[in-house]
Design a protein that fits this description.
Length: 213
Protein backbone atom coordinates (compact mmCIF):
# COMPACT_ATOMS: atom_id res chain seq x y z
CA UNK A 1 0.00 0.00 0.00
CA UNK A 2 1.26 3.48 -0.83
CA UNK A 3 2.48 5.47 2.16
CA UNK A 4 -0.01 8.29 1.61
CA UNK A 5 -2.93 5.84 1.61
CA UNK A 6 -1.64 4.23 4.81
CA UNK A 7 -1.21 7.67 6.41
CA UNK A 8 -4.78 8.62 5.44
CA UNK A 9 -6.04 5.42 7.05
CA UNK A 10 -4.16 6.23 10.26
CA UNK A 11 -5.50 9.80 10.28
CA UNK A 12 -9.09 8.63 9.72
CA UNK A 13 -8.97 6.32 12.73
CA UNK A 14 -7.14 8.83 14.91
CA UNK A 15 -9.99 11.28 14.27
CA UNK A 16 -12.70 8.73 15.11
CA UNK A 17 -11.03 7.01 18.06
CA UNK A 18 -13.16 8.57 20.80
CA UNK A 19 -16.38 7.98 18.85
CA UNK A 20 -15.53 4.33 18.26
CA UNK A 21 -14.68 3.89 21.94
CA UNK A 22 -18.09 5.21 23.02
CA UNK A 23 -20.39 3.54 20.49
CA UNK A 24 -22.50 0.49 21.35
CA UNK A 25 -21.10 -2.85 20.21
CA UNK A 26 -23.36 -4.76 17.81
CA UNK A 27 -24.97 -7.92 19.12
CA UNK A 28 -23.29 -10.16 16.53
CA UNK A 29 -19.89 -8.91 17.61
CA UNK A 30 -20.65 -9.66 21.27
CA UNK A 31 -21.77 -13.17 20.30
CA UNK A 32 -18.65 -13.65 18.20
CA UNK A 33 -16.21 -12.71 20.93
CA UNK A 34 -18.08 -14.91 23.44
CA UNK A 35 -17.62 -17.84 21.04
CA UNK A 36 -13.94 -16.95 20.66
CA UNK A 37 -13.51 -16.95 24.43
CA UNK A 38 -15.12 -20.39 24.68
CA UNK A 39 -12.75 -21.74 22.04
CA UNK A 40 -9.72 -20.13 23.72
CA UNK A 41 -10.63 -21.82 26.98
CA UNK A 42 -11.33 -25.20 25.38
CA UNK A 43 -7.87 -25.16 23.74
CA UNK A 44 -6.13 -23.69 26.80
CA UNK A 45 -4.96 -20.59 24.95
CA UNK A 46 -3.84 -18.00 27.48
CA UNK A 47 -1.83 -15.47 25.43
CA UNK A 48 -3.71 -13.59 22.70
CA UNK A 49 -2.63 -11.03 20.10
CA UNK A 50 -5.34 -8.69 18.81
CA UNK A 51 -4.44 -7.29 15.39
CA UNK A 52 -6.25 -4.01 14.74
CA UNK A 53 -7.46 -3.67 18.32
CA UNK A 54 -9.12 -0.28 17.89
CA UNK A 55 -9.91 1.33 21.26
CA UNK A 56 -9.48 -1.99 23.04
CA UNK A 57 -13.09 -2.93 23.81
CA UNK A 58 -12.68 -6.59 22.85
CA UNK A 59 -9.20 -6.81 24.34
CA UNK A 60 -10.53 -5.47 27.65
CA UNK A 61 -13.24 -8.14 27.57
CA UNK A 62 -10.70 -10.92 27.05
CA UNK A 63 -8.36 -9.47 29.68
CA UNK A 64 -11.27 -9.47 32.13
CA UNK A 65 -11.59 -13.21 31.49
CA UNK A 66 -7.96 -13.83 32.50
CA UNK A 67 -6.57 -13.93 28.99
CA UNK A 68 -3.15 -12.28 28.59
CA UNK A 69 -3.84 -9.87 25.71
CA UNK A 70 -1.45 -7.78 23.61
CA UNK A 71 -2.97 -5.15 21.29
CA UNK A 72 -1.56 -3.73 18.07
CA UNK A 73 -3.08 -1.03 15.89
CA UNK A 74 -1.99 1.41 13.20
CA UNK A 75 -3.60 4.37 15.00
CA UNK A 76 -1.74 6.08 17.84
CA UNK A 77 -5.03 7.34 19.26
CA UNK A 78 -6.44 3.83 19.39
CA UNK A 79 -3.31 2.68 21.19
CA UNK A 80 -3.70 5.53 23.68
CA UNK A 81 -7.23 4.35 24.45
CA UNK A 82 -6.08 0.74 24.82
CA UNK A 83 -3.40 1.77 27.30
CA UNK A 84 -5.94 3.88 29.21
CA UNK A 85 -7.79 0.60 29.81
CA UNK A 86 -4.65 -0.92 31.30
CA UNK A 87 -3.89 -3.00 28.21
CA UNK A 88 -0.47 -3.77 26.76
CA UNK A 89 -0.63 -2.06 23.38
CA UNK A 90 1.72 -1.07 20.57
CA UNK A 91 1.40 1.11 17.47
CA UNK A 92 2.30 -1.42 14.83
CA UNK A 93 1.58 -2.37 11.22
CA UNK A 94 0.20 -5.87 10.60
CA UNK A 95 2.85 -6.26 7.86
CA UNK A 96 5.57 -6.10 10.51
CA UNK A 97 4.63 -7.66 13.84
CA UNK A 98 7.64 -7.00 16.02
CA UNK A 99 7.35 -10.07 18.25
CA UNK A 100 9.49 -13.20 18.40
CA UNK A 101 8.38 -16.36 16.61
CA UNK A 102 5.77 -18.37 18.51
CA UNK A 103 4.96 -15.61 21.01
CA UNK A 104 1.19 -16.24 21.17
CA UNK A 105 -1.28 -19.08 21.55
CA UNK A 106 -3.87 -17.30 19.42
CA UNK A 107 -4.58 -14.17 17.39
CA UNK A 108 -7.84 -12.27 16.89
CA UNK A 109 -8.72 -9.67 14.27
CA UNK A 110 -12.17 -8.19 13.76
CA UNK A 111 -12.74 -6.04 10.65
CA UNK A 112 -9.16 -4.78 10.55
CA UNK A 113 -7.44 -6.67 7.74
CA UNK A 114 -10.01 -5.41 5.22
CA UNK A 115 -7.77 -2.35 4.92
CA UNK A 116 -4.95 -4.40 3.36
CA UNK A 117 -4.36 -4.53 -0.35
CA UNK A 118 -4.95 -7.91 -1.92
CA UNK A 119 -1.19 -8.15 -2.51
CA UNK A 120 -0.48 -7.63 1.20
CA UNK A 121 -2.75 -10.39 2.47
CA UNK A 122 -0.34 -13.34 2.06
CA UNK A 123 2.50 -11.50 3.81
CA UNK A 124 0.29 -10.44 6.73
CA UNK A 125 -1.04 -13.97 7.13
CA UNK A 126 2.54 -15.27 7.19
CA UNK A 127 3.41 -12.71 9.85
CA UNK A 128 0.42 -13.78 11.94
CA UNK A 129 1.46 -17.40 11.46
CA UNK A 130 5.03 -16.61 12.50
CA UNK A 131 4.09 -15.10 15.86
CA UNK A 132 1.79 -18.01 16.72
CA UNK A 133 2.94 -21.26 18.25
CA UNK A 134 2.49 -24.39 16.18
CA UNK A 135 -1.16 -25.34 16.35
CA UNK A 136 -2.16 -21.85 17.46
CA UNK A 137 -5.47 -20.35 16.36
CA UNK A 138 -6.26 -17.22 14.36
CA UNK A 139 -9.81 -15.89 14.68
CA UNK A 140 -10.21 -13.72 11.57
CA UNK A 141 -13.35 -11.77 10.68
CA UNK A 142 -13.87 -9.24 7.87
CA UNK A 143 -16.59 -7.92 5.62
CA UNK A 144 -16.53 -9.22 2.07
CA UNK A 145 -18.44 -11.07 -0.60
CA UNK A 146 -17.01 -9.62 -3.81
CA UNK A 147 -13.57 -8.68 -5.06
CA UNK A 148 -12.74 -4.99 -4.71
CA UNK A 149 -9.92 -2.76 -3.52
CA UNK A 150 -9.62 1.00 -3.42
CA UNK A 151 -10.65 4.10 -1.50
CA UNK A 152 -14.35 3.79 -0.60
CA UNK A 153 -15.93 6.89 -2.10
CA UNK A 154 -19.10 6.62 0.04
CA UNK A 155 -17.07 6.43 3.24
CA UNK A 156 -18.21 8.79 6.01
CA UNK A 157 -14.72 9.04 7.48
CA UNK A 158 -12.26 11.75 6.47
CA UNK A 159 -9.84 11.09 4.95
CA UNK A 160 -11.82 8.39 3.16
CA UNK A 161 -10.50 4.92 3.93
CA UNK A 162 -9.02 2.28 1.64
CA UNK A 163 -10.87 -1.05 1.70
CA UNK A 164 -10.29 -4.40 0.08
CA UNK A 165 -13.00 -7.06 -0.06
CA UNK A 166 -12.76 -10.63 -1.26
CA UNK A 167 -15.23 -13.24 -2.40
CA UNK A 168 -15.70 -16.13 0.02
CA UNK A 169 -13.76 -18.44 -2.28
CA UNK A 170 -10.84 -16.04 -2.69
CA UNK A 171 -10.59 -15.34 1.06
CA UNK A 172 -10.53 -19.04 1.95
CA UNK A 173 -7.92 -19.73 -0.73
CA UNK A 174 -5.78 -16.85 0.55
CA UNK A 175 -6.06 -18.10 4.14
CA UNK A 176 -4.84 -21.52 3.04
CA UNK A 177 -1.52 -20.03 1.90
CA UNK A 178 -0.46 -19.81 5.55
CA UNK A 179 -3.00 -21.68 7.69
CA UNK A 180 -5.25 -24.67 7.89
CA UNK A 181 -8.89 -23.57 7.67
CA UNK A 182 -10.79 -25.00 10.65
CA UNK A 183 -14.08 -23.31 9.81
CA UNK A 184 -15.65 -20.63 7.65
CA UNK A 185 -18.95 -18.94 8.48
CA UNK A 186 -20.87 -16.45 6.38
CA UNK A 187 -23.21 -14.11 8.25
CA UNK A 188 -25.75 -11.88 6.56
CA UNK A 189 -26.45 -8.60 8.35
CA UNK A 190 -29.58 -6.49 8.13
CA UNK A 191 -29.32 -2.81 7.19
CA UNK A 192 -25.85 -3.24 5.70
CA UNK A 193 -24.64 -2.92 2.15
CA UNK A 194 -26.44 -5.81 0.39
CA UNK A 195 -23.27 -6.67 -1.50
CA UNK A 196 -21.35 -7.33 1.72
CA UNK A 197 -21.61 -9.94 4.44
CA UNK A 198 -19.50 -11.02 7.38
CA UNK A 199 -16.81 -13.62 6.71
CA UNK A 200 -15.62 -15.32 9.90
CA UNK A 201 -12.83 -17.89 9.89
CA UNK A 202 -11.04 -19.97 12.47
CA UNK A 203 -7.55 -20.79 11.21
CA UNK A 204 -4.93 -23.08 12.70
CA UNK A 205 -1.17 -22.66 12.38
CA UNK A 206 0.35 -25.80 10.87
CA UNK A 207 2.45 -27.93 13.17
CA UNK A 208 5.55 -27.46 11.03
CA UNK A 209 6.33 -23.74 10.68
CA UNK A 210 8.73 -24.31 7.79
CA UNK A 211 5.79 -25.22 5.58
CA UNK A 212 4.51 -21.61 5.56
CA UNK A 213 7.71 -19.54 5.51
Amino acid sequence: MRRDVRNDLRAAYDAKAEMRDEREIARWKLDLRAAVLERLRSERCTRLLEIGAGPGSDAAFFAGQRIDVVCVDLSSEMIRLCRAKGLEAYEMDANDLRFPDGSFDAAYSLNALLHLTHAEWPRVLREARRVLRDGGLFFLTVYGGFDHEGVWQDDRYEPKRFFSFQSDERLVATAKTAFEVVSFERMELENDDPKLHVQSLILRAPQHASATR
